[in-house]
């Protein structure tokens, strides 16, 4: 199945709900606690190939059993409580927390009530392992089962996931039809989740050296218009994404992407001062700026004037 956004159909019975959820999210066994309620259930999914975002509600209380074959499920309650048992351990998640269900592991959700609305992220195991190796430069990374989304990083990632889903719902998933866009968004979601959820390595700070920072700075200066991602820069540095971020903060007092943004602002400023490249918008776009409203504010903060004022002086 390949779909970008499946609007919630009106279900005739629980068998239809079961089949839709199995196709859109995970194979499972469903145990409705009441006969009515199927028609009030809703399933919407954004398909990013190696990842899927799904919004799930049920019109009556149901029990769910699943081994989550071949993929991890990160279930985030938007309302209500999600009680679950994974192996021999019990978990309870409410808004502000998420439960990560490991792949190929029996899990039981005894009472998914009608007031429980879940935003779920399905990540193929191979994709999660590949991204975790790229982010942390090691193979033994494990996603915690209980994820706190109230931390600054956790809250930022949750907003990212919810915005991705809402954008697809609002525009019909038009951009995600492009495989490159879908792959990029999937990588962004998984990398962000790993950075937000996986604890810091105790010895990471001692392992930092300035050489990775120099390599990354040189690469950005050589090609500042390239749409660099944290993973791209970490591969150039030869360290994990987290270690690279720590190295930049230690040696430059900023993050890699913030440094890249400042580099682009400097190049734009130089062009505007010398009247090169056309209008402010044309110059900004030529250096890789995509959010023009934010650009103007950042430019003013860095140079003390609007970009239009700089260009006007060069005329």
TrEMBL record:
Entry keyword annotation includes Transmembrane helix: no
Segments forming a coiled coil: none
Domain HTH araC/xylS-type stretches: 214-313
Keyword annotations of the record: DNA-binding, Transcription, Transcription regulation
Highest taxon above the source species: Bacteria
Protein name listed in UniProt: Transcriptional regulator, AraC family
SMART domains associated with the record: HTH_ARAC (SM00342)
Cross-referenced PANTHER family: HTH-TYPE DNA-BINDING TRANSCRIPTIONAL ACTIVATOR EUTR, HTH-TYPE TRANSCRIPTIONAL ACTIVATOR RHAS-RELATED
A GO term, aspect molecular function: DNA-binding transcription factor activity
Organism: Janibacter indicus
Gene3D superfamilies with a match to the protein in the record: Homeodomain-like
Pfam families recorded: AraC_binding_2 (PF14525), HTH_18 (PF12833)
């Amino acid at each position: 199945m390949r779909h970008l956004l499946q609007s919630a159909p009106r279900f005739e019975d629980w068998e239809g709900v079961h089949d839709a959820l199995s196709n859109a999210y995970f194979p499972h066994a469903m145990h409705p606690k009441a006969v009515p309620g199927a028609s009030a259930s809703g399933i919407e999914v954004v398909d990013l190939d190696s990842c899927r975002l799904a919004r799930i509600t049920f019109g009556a209380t149901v029990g769910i059993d699943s081994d989550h074959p071949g993929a991890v499920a990160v279930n985030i309650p938007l309302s209500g409580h999600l009680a679950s048992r994974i192996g021999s351990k019990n978990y309870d998640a409410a808004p502000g927390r998420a439960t990560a269900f490991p792949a190929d592991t029996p899990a039981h959700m005894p009472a998914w009530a009608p007031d429980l609305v879940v935003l779920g992220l399905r990540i193929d195991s191979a994709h999660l392992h590949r991204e975790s190796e790229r982010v942390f430069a090691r193979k033994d990374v494990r996603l915690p089962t209980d994820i706190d989304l109230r931390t600054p990083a956790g809250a930022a990632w949750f907003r990212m996931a919810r915005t991705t889903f809402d954008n697809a719902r609002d525009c019909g998933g038009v951009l995600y039809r492009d495989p490159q866009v879908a792959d990029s968004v999937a990588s962004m979601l998984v990398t962000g989740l790993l950075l937000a959820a996986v604890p810091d390595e105790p010895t990471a700070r001692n392992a930092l050296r300035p050489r990775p920072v120099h390599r990354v700075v040189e690469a950005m200066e050589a090609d500042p218009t390239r749409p660099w991602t944290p993973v791209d820069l970490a591969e150039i540095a030869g360290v994990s994404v987290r270690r690279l971020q720590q190295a930049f903060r230690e040696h430059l007092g900023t993050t890699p992407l913030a440094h890249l943004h400042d580099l682009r602002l400097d190049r734009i400023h130089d062009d505007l001062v010398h009247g090169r490249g056309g209008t402010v918008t044309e110059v900004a776009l030529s250096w890789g700026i995509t959010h023009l409203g934010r650009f103007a504010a950042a430019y003013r903060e860095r140079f003390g004037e609007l970009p239009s004022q700089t260009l006007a002086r060069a005329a």
